[in-house]
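Lab notebook: predicted structure, single chain.

Context: the supervisor wants predicted structures on file for every construct in the current expression panel, including those that have not yet been purified. This is the next one on the list. No modifications to the sequence; it matches the entry in the shared construct table.
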Amino acid sequence: MSLQVAPLDGLGEIVPGDDVPTLVAEALAAAVDLLPLRLDDVLVVTQKIVSKAEGALVDLTTIEPRAEALEFARRHDRDARQVEVVLREARRVVRMANGVIITETRHGFVCANGGIDASNVGPASGSVVTLLPEDPDASADRIRAAIEERLGHDLPVIVSDSFGRPWRYGIVDVAIGVSGLMPLEDLRGVPDADGRVMRSTVRAVADELASAAELVLGKTARRPLALIRGATFQRGPGRVRDSLIPPEMDLFR
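Prediction complete. Output recorded below exactly as produced.
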């Protein structure tokens, strides 16, 4: 088995109102070296271009921070306006300590700063932050539909974003939206290589694919698209919520 991860260029700077699904389909159509598309292909699209196109942006010059945001920003050298946006967008604040705010988003993601980001926002950098897309699964659906209409191929799509991880330094890209594939592979009940039945192994396939894509996309190259070829995954009507641990099983609440 082998895996190919190929970045796609040609999108340029995305602004609110841009038709990202059509632009992505056209970028794929122009990547003649990767055509025709195959059944083991998956497209990974970074969250930032989806958020920008869908207008999931906040102008920090319009934000009046509350006292809690001002005090946290003062103690930890943060932008109080950005802290305020994080607090406003949170369904639940998990913890605020060491300059980090961990929140649960309305999507059910538990992550630093609610996924709100000031990097790679375009010419307004410094005064604008991006939010997560309203419905990343639906965003992935629209991109997948545009590709099928343009190229006649049902290409599974992952929308990715960078998350930190408990117990470890560093960030990795994970799937925050999926369309056309199951995000998990449940191996419970399957014998391992030694014949021992696995009881807890569930592979986070969509997250692994998102991380593989990030290795060629990077954070500074302005490359928001990667085609992964040779992946092993299950097609199906997966949703990203399938990857989220329910509250009754969450040991960190």
